[in-house]
Amino acid sequence: MAALALAWGLGPALPTLLRGELLGHPWTDLYPAVWGLWASGQGDELLAARTELLGFPEGMGFAYSSPIKALLARPLLPLLGLVPTWNLLLIAARVATVATTWAAARAWGARPGGALLAAAVFACSPFFHGYAVEGIVEGTDGWTLALWAWALGRGRTLLAVPLMALTILSSWYLGVAGLVLCVLASPWRPGALLSLAGPLLAAPALASFLSAFPALAPLDPAVRAAMGTPLLPRAPGMLPGLSPFAITSWLGLLLPLMLAKGRSRLALLALVPWVLSLGFGPWYELPGLELLRFPYRLHAATLAILALAASRLPWPRLALFAPLIVAEGLLLSPVEPLLPGAPVEVPALYDRVDGPLLEVPSIVAMPPGQVNPSRARARSLFYYQAHHGQPSPWTPDFNAVGTLPGDAWLAPFAAWDPLVAKTPPEELEEGAVELLRGRGVELVMVQGKELGAERSRRLIEGLVAQGARVEGAEGTRTLLRVGGAER
Hints:
mainly alpha; two-stranded antiparallel ribbon
């Protein structure tokens, strides 16, 4: 078990670690998640439901999607720094998920070889690997659900209740998957129903999240279905080409064949969470379920049942199938086998940022399910802010969880964004610099690569004409001072 845990934790990550990069794709959720890890450690209150780092000067609602990661990161960030902390927590989560899955399978009666097979099916699945590839911070802690299953398997039903709360705190979706498993496990462990009280213990974090994003609303059913378990096969992720989006409920061929050959009745129970993970059906009109935005993530419950079913197959040497399951997932699933890396360098120009900073352009809010090309700008808005520490007036929408109108006053600057307006303004709106000064913004960073050379030139000229002063330039970036004391 230890060999599998270490190999799974370090093996796919090693090339990126040797390059000194962040683990994960830079074009999806990685930089906002890394920023959230840092931002959650800036205040005294972990569940503050608000940040002063965005939406300056008023601030905006914000709740980190993984309170567990935020708690674990607090003592590590001052010692290790942001990048090593992120990478360490990710690797630790992968290792811990293998170890706890093995222990859970043993608690439910599996032999050591069967428990190793269960760890390969659940912990080393393309499903959890995809979370790590995409930088989805709340998805990689499968160990919390496995730890709950271990307690239940040992008959420690009272201990299982706070462990269900822990699962909810690690990931709302993993918590929903766990609550489904509570009901399904009750014929064998009637005490499992006590774990339905887990949400009560996690209520402060849930309340914080809902308070931070009051505009959270049910998805369009068509969009939710698009975020459900994919029914059509996709090309293997090991093939050339960029595929940063790692939504998958891939099971492969070997596992279903093994379960069919072994005539596992327990495996049939997995049809319940699998149907739920499709993302459509009348049950999605029920309170709570109608808010689920990524139903494919309920696949964790499907995997948990199939892992237990596989561990109980009445065959000798089940452990020999574990590496085959892992290899099949890495080579044939739609998720790339090696964890990609994201740049960690910060341009030297950001060392001169010493006051509230407006990045132009910023991230643009788009409807859920729509490809958002502005997500690539998260590196400058979020990750670079973790370097300079100065607030931004933008109020990003965090995956359309709760779009806020707080930055509507920045319309004169958003109008220069090619994603907002194909034709830029003739000139910078009169009084734009004075507007920034009145709000306390001191600096503007013009991102020439995103705006294009002509828009950048005209915007910079407009800022200077209204009294801004060029502080410096690096590559296609230009930093201008619009307010604050002379430095």
